[in-house]
Structures are given as C-alpha cells and as structure tokens.
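hey m, so remember when u said the tokens were messed up on ur end? i reran from scratch. heres the input so u can diff it against urs
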Amino acid sequence: MKLSEYFPVWDQLTEAQQNMLEHSAVYREIPKGTLLHNGELDCLGMILVESGRLRAYIVSEEGKEITIYRLLSRDICLFSASCMMKNIQFEVTVEAETEAAVRIIPPSAFRGVMEESAAMANYMNELMAGRLSDVVWLMEQVMWKSFDSRLAAFLLEESALEESDVLKITQEKIADHLGTAREVVTRMLRYFQGEGAVKLSRGTIEILDRKKLEATAR
C-alpha cells in the first residue's frame, strides 16, 4: 500500500517531503498480542495499518483496561506519536489484536514534515481532534449507556418490519429516526461491527448476532 493512500494532502507535499516519509517508513509484520506502544514510556511514531487489527486502550490506576478504539487497514494511529503534537499528552497503549502489517514513521522524520508543511500539520490536527472526539464519545457511553441500547432496539425493530436481517437503510436515515447526528450513528455501528453484531456495507446493515443486539437493547 502506498503512503499516499493514507494522506489526502500527499499532493500538497514537496517531492523532498514525500521522499522523507517514504524512505523513513519502516515495514513491520506484527504477531498477535504484540505491544507496539505503551503509554508515556515511549514515542514510537506514526503507525500506518496495512492489514490486521490493532487495539488502542487506556489503563486505570487499578489496572482496569478500556478499549478506546480499534485500528483497521488504512487507519493511522496518532496517539503513538502524541509527542509530535503540541499540547497533546495522552497515555494510551497499542497492541496487535490480530496478526498485522504496519508501517512506522519515526517521530523525527514526521515532525520535520509537519514543521515544513502547513497542510500536513492541519490534517494531523484534524485527525487528532477526531480521535479525541471518539474518546469523549466513549466516556459518555460508559457513563450513560443510552444511545447504544436505543440503536440496538432500532435495528431489531427495523428487522422485524422488513422481515429480514439485511436492512437497506442509510446511516443518515437512522440518525433522522433517532434524533441525533449521522456521525454518532456511524461510530456506534462501527463498534457493533467490531463486536461481531452487525456487518456494514454501502447502504445496508446486516445483523449477524441478534442475541448481542437484544442484550444491548435491554
């Protein structure tokens, strides 16, 4: 997979900046269970996922873990490179949830490109803001446990109405039904997919594990 596929601002970089990223990126095949990044103990750099799945989580003082997000093919892990982001210090642990293939861009190389390219710096700030938004969303779910049950109940109701486990409905339409933003629906559906309850494709949602949805809807 080309590095340009990860960065929509690739064409706005100079040839020298592109070469810097391409030549510094290290390809690694990661066995399942490998710890890639461990909170404040290291600053690995930018992780670009080519295949497999990574898990990012935080650990409480009591040692309790909570997953904040999963990373799939074409995803970028930013918190493993938080040392490159001004005023962002976030202790997160990243491990390979499955066998994975990644590229790692060292902090020194990526920092140099960010300092020279406003387009890349702005894009990274947008990604970081999105990740922080995901974390805030997760904390809200943990505290209130409301929207996941509403969405699960809605999917089950739609399935009963359509008499099918394959729902031809857009995420925008679901948001309209539930009185929320499409982005909120998207994040929860991706979580359901990660848990194996549903399968997402363009314009359709397939229910894979009805019992999981029923348990969530209670």
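this time it looks ok to me. The mean pLDDT is 85. if urs says something different then somethings off w ur setup not the seq
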